[in-house]
Amino acid sequence: MPDHKDKFSQYALCALFPFELMVNVFRISRQTGWDIGTVNNLSSAIFYY
Q: What pTM was computed for the model?
């Protein structure tokens, strides 16, 4: 019988990763040297993918 905890944790990580990107736009921009707009576009593309 499949373990439902594994399925839930996969979905939780899929939802958490784009949220973390969107919250940390300024930190990512500062560390990578990318423009804030570029980081926003990238995080939006990942979020809606």
A: 0.54
